[in-house]
Structure formats: C-alpha cells, structure tokens
Automatic annotation (TrEMBL):
Coiled coil: none annotated. Keywords: Signal. Residues 1-23 form the signal peptide. This is Porin.
Length: 497
C-alpha cells in the first residue's frame, strides 16, 4: 500500500514538471483541462491516503484487543500482570491462608501462577512455586498482656501480673488444589507446646458444597468463641461457655475431623484422643464432637447466626480427676477463679451448647449457653456445669464485624484505613456479661463477670486491646472462699502473621 502511494505521487510530480515541455503556448482550454486533471490526481491521492490511515487505525485496534496467543506470549503477558488476588470468604476479614482456602480458590491460584511468586499479605509473605503447585506461608502470633486486680477482700487476689497469651511460630501450605498442611508451636509459658499440627484434603461436592478432612493435632470446633482463635477474640479471654464447657483434654486433641461447607452453613464432626503428650502407657480418652452453624439471613451489611454443638468423651483411667478452677477475672490472675472443689472418679462427660447472634452494620451481638454433664463412679449422681454469656460490639470507623461465614466464628478484620497508611485504624467498643455455675456440687462455686472494652486495630494484623472487668466469685472450697468482688484491668498488644 505504501509503495503504491509513492509511485502515484512520483507520477503526479513528473506530470507537473513535464507540462511546459508538452505545450509551449497552451490555450485557455488546455490550461483548464490541465487544472482539472491535476485536481483529479490530487483527489485520488487524498482518497488513497484516507484509506491507508483507516487501515492503520484498524490494525492498531486489532493489536490492542485480546487475541489468542502462543504459550510463550501468554507466559510473558501473565508475568507482566499483577498476581491473582484470592477473594476472601467475606470482604470484612483478612483473606485466608493456604491451609484455609477452599478448593476453588486453590485451583484459581494454581491457574494464574507463572514464575516464582512472593506476595505480602497480612504481615508475612506467601510463596508460590513456578507452576502454582506448591504454596507456603510462615505463621506467627505474639500476644503480650498485663493485668492488674484491685478491690478484692483478699490481698492475695489484688495483684499485678504480666504474661504472654501466645507466642507462636509455625507454617502452613499446600500441594496442588487438594492437599494442605499447618503446624504451629507455642512458647508462651516458657515451654515448647505443640498446638495446631495437621494435614488435610479438600474437594467439592457439586457446585455449591465443598469439604475438607484433617488429620493430626486439631483445634476444637466448639462454641462461637471456642472456635475463634485467641488472636481474633474481641475480648482478651474467651467467655465461660468456651472455658468451662469443654472436654477434659482441653482445646486440642489428636484425631480426624471432617468439615462440610455450603453457601450459608457449615458442619463438622471429629473423633480425637488426647492432646500431644508422651503418655502411651494407658488408653487415651476418646472424644466425639460436632458443630454446625447456619446463616438464615445473609446480606452485604447484615447477618443472622444460629449454631449448635456437642461432644461426648469416654475418659481414660488416667484422666478421672475432673477438678476445675476456671478464670473469671482475666487469664493472668490465677487467684481469681471459680472452683468445683476436688472432684475425683470421673467416667465420662457430655457437653452441648447453642449460639444465637448476628450483626447489622458495625454492630454485632452474640449469645451463648452450654452445659456439661460429668458422670461419676461409685453410684454418685452426675455433676452438671452451666455457663452462659451475652456479648456485643460496635465498630466506630465503618468496618463490618470480622465474622467469617464459612466457619461461623470471628477472624482478623480488614481495616479500612490502616494507621501505617496514615489513617486512623479501626476502633471497636465491646461489652460482655458471663455467668458460671458449679453449685451442682456440694463444694462447687459460682461467679459472674461484666466486661467493657475497646479494641484499636492499627491494621489487619496489629491491635491494642483494653478490658475493664467487674467480677464476682463465691467459692465453697480453696484459699478464697465466700462471696468476693473486685475489678481487673487488662491490656494487650497483639501481632498476628
């Protein structure tokens, strides 16, 4: 096209140059014919030029439009594009890590990976292999507390203490879309303690339901606050339902857990033995547990939560002591507790509870209640522990409560205006009333606590918390018996990776 244009231009110039030689004395008619011929040539040249410019524009548009590409071209385009951002389970929480995403998200990540990828998320990087098959993320948790108690009639309860609520290091990752793993060790009591340690398999059942199966040292799926990690609870310590209505082995046990997830519900079933220990001379206790939650109302700004859970444990011959001493005024004052008194000869226990709550905008409310039945030997009657709590919170800075609809628990909040970006962070006001009753035993005590607090989230993984607790205990055994009241002020700085 360009060569034709040049050829035509040269012909026109030659015609103009030759005109004087063709006619030494042209007539007016000849001149008029010549002008008309030159005008025609110029018009033809202009039409060709317009056509050429139109074709060039079309070619540029075609090049900018997406077209099928070869494998090397696709690789170059993907390498130049930003990494895939996995959609979180809810916009108000931090996206889950490699061990918590579902199989669809794992497949999406693998399909997008070309070249080694390192992405910085909530505090620590996520590493992905060149083919997207292998995923790895370090994990960490530092929770530092200080607590001061006053007002008790017993001077031994009026203490000021410090402690590490959690000091964890670990990792999580996956191989392909199905296999995943997680491991964490806690050093908070100046001892090495294995906490979460499992491997698992995930897949889908139809288009709307998926599942996973985990094997290893597993965290309980029990109660709302009991299923929420210690770094995500809105208060410095979980409520009495989670701390008292619990299997004898505690929050962890070695075994297998299956979980199923739908669009607005989840259900889990687990069979576990004792937690990690070095005791293999006797049988483990056996615990069967289950939990389910349902969100019958679920919109962009509001949600209703309904949940239920239960467990049944057959106690080992080495775990027949059921004596309990449960904190009521904060974790780091070991003297402020509600006690059962000495309780020996346990055979088995059964616990169950219900959850009801939800949120609208930045306001959330959650009520929990539970009961534990301990069966004793030698013909003695069963012992019943009862607990309940009512909690609420309000985000003043526009965030939605960090509710995870996949698990029916709280997670890390997605802060809208982080302090590290020059913003104000997220500010949450909280309040809770909780009650615990061990009086079904002759020597059993009872107590309650009312807590008000404020949480300041600098970003999605750093927070400051302050709790003021008015507590009451009435123990019938131990060093601090009778009715007693006091106040505890606790504070925390926490970082979660």
């Amino acid at each position: 096209m360009t060569s034709s244009f040049l050829r035509d231009g040269c012909a026109a110039l030659a015609l103009i140059a030759a005109t004087p030689a063709l006619a030494q004395a042209p007539s007016n008619a000849d001149l008029a014919d010549l002008v008309r011929a030159q005008a025609a040539e110029i018009a033809a040249l202009k039409a060709r030029l317009d056509k050429l410019e139109g074709q060039n524009a079309a070619m540029a548009a075609a090049q900018s439009a997406p077209t099928p590409a070869s494998a090397p071209q696709m690789a170059q385009q993907q390498a130049a594009s930003p990494p895939l951002t996995v959609s979180p389970f809810a916009p108000q929480i931090v996206p889950p890590g490699p061990a918590d995403i579902d199989v669809a998200q794992a497949r999406a990540i693998a399909a997008n990976e070309v070249g080694l990828k390192t992405e910085w998320g909530a505090g620590l990087p996520v590493f992905r292999s060149a083919d997207g098959v292998f995923t790895y993320k370090p994990r960490g948790r530092i929770l530092v507390d200080v607590s001061s108690t006053m007002g008790s009639k017993y001077s031994g309860r009026n203490t000021t203490t410090t402690g590490m609520r959690a000091l964890r290091l670990g990792l999580e990752g996956g191989v392909g879309p199905h296999f995943f793993y997680q491991f964490e060790t806690d050093f908070s009591e100046n001892e090495v303690d294995i906490v979460t340690a499992f491997m698992g398999w995930r897949n889908k059942i139809g288009s709307k339901v998926d599942y996973d199966v985990r094997v290893g040292h597993l965290f309980n799926d029990r109660a709302f606050e009991g299923s929420t990690g210690s770094d995500s609870t809105p208060f410095l310590e979980r409520g009495t339902v989670s701390t008292a209505i619990i299997p004898q082995r505690g929050f962890y046990g070695i075994g297998i857990m299956g979980r199923m997830f739908g669009p607005n519900w989840h259900a889990s079933v687990a069979v576990t033995g004792d937690r990690v220990d070095g005791q293999q001379a006797t049988n483990d206790s056996r615990t069967v547990s289950a939990r389910a939650h349902w969100n019958p109302i679920k919109t962009d700004t509001s949600l209703l939560h309904v949940g239920a859970w239960g467990f049944d444990e057959a106690l080992s011959s080495a775990a027949t002591t059921l004596t309990r001493s449960t904190v009521i005024g904060g974790r780091f004052n070991g003297a402020v507790r509600v006690s059962t008194g000495e309780l020996l000869g346990g055979r088995s226990t059964t616990g169950y509870g219900v959850e009801l709550g939800g949120y609208t905008g930045g306001l959330w409310v959650m009520g929990e209640a539970g009961q534990r039945i301990a069966r004793l030997d030698a013909g003695r009657p069963d012992f019943k522990s009862k607990a309940w709590s009512l909690s609420t919170g309000l985000f003043l800075t526009g965030e939605l409560p960090p509710y995870n609809p996949r698990l029916g628990s709280f997670g890390q909040p997605n802060v809208l205006d982080p302090v590290l970006d020059g913003g104000t962070g997220a500010i949450e006001l909280t309040a809770r009333y909780e009650n615990l009753d061990y009086t079904d035993l002759v020597l059993g005590g009872e107590g309650w606590a009312a807590t008000v607090g404020v949480n300041w989230y600098l970003n999605s993984f750093t927070r400051f918390q302050l709790n003021g607790i008015q507590w009451h205990s009435d123990n019938r055994a131990g060093a601090y018996t009778g009715s007693d009241d006091g106040q505890t002020i606790s504070a925390r700085v926490g970082v979660t990776f």
